[in-house]
Amino acid sequence: MKLGLTVDEVLATTRAVRKRIDFDKPVEPEVIKECLEAAVQSPTGSNSQAWQWMVVTDPGQRQALADVYRKGWELYANMDGNAATAYDGDDPDRQAQQGRVTASAEYLAQNFEKVPVMLIPILPGRLDGLPSMAGAAMFGSILPGAWSFMLAARERGLGTALTTIHMMHEQEAADVLGIDYNNYTQCALVTCGYSLGTDFKPAKRPPIETVLHWDSWGGAAPWA
Q1: 45 Cβ partners below 8 Å, 6+ apart?
Q2: How far is residue 1's CA from residue 101's CA, in Å, rounded to a whole number?
Q3: CATH number, domain at 23?
């Protein structure tokens, strides 16, 4: 069942949903198929359409991926720039928001295997040693599709979160799933399940003027 949201509402309220996933409600394969059909309408570099999509619902496979994810989480939790340290300003609202994000991410790590669906977008080839242009083109040919999947999921009452922590041990995940690690790159892992409630709101963000550069690095917006 679709929620009937407008395009702007979907864009503004597709949040990273971690604590509000219904772990006990399975997601129908046909709903995942609808979201994937939206995903493959996204643009790709040179119209390559070289993507592959792996959907994981088997409990044993989810548990194995959760074990890999938690190994990565232990590393990530002690890195500079993690969810707890990504913001170092003095805005109390932003500090509180960052604290909620950290708690939410920790919750997902602790309950990873309970998420009903895991989606892994995959591209052929490896990024190792590629110039920045090639890397940008590669990710630019798959992440828009992952985002389209997440937008379509939101409209269908599903919550998602795009994660990359399992890629700290990508080869182990490849071995679990039978992916040819030497010839294919996992580009993310999107957790997915029906959300507990659908009343998500736009997130608080800094004014666009604080991050905008118009025509040059010092250029102000014409409406300023």
Answers
A1: 137, 138, 140, 141
A2: 29
A3: 3.40.109.10
pLDDT digits (tens, 9 = 90+) for 11-40: 999 999 999 999 999 999 999 999 999 999
Tell me the Ramachandran region of residue 222: left when phi exceeds 0, alpha when psi lies from -120 to 50, beta otherwise: alpha
- For residue 197, tell me if it sits in a domain: yes
The DSSP-derived string for 162-192 is: EE-GGGGGHHHHHHHHT--TTTEEE--EEEE
- Count of domains forming the chain: 1
Cα separation, 161 vs 180, whole angstroms? 25
In a domain, 222, yes or no: no
Q: What is the pTM assigned to this prediction?
A: 0.93
In whole angstroms, what is the distance from residue 35 CA to residue 19 CA? 22
- pLDDT score recorded for residue 67: 98
Please check whether residue 43 lies inside any domain of the structure.
yes
Q: For residues 176, 178, 182 and 186, what is the CA-based torsion angle, rounded to 10 degrees?
A: -70
Q: How far apart are CA 128 and CA 171, in angstroms?
A: 14
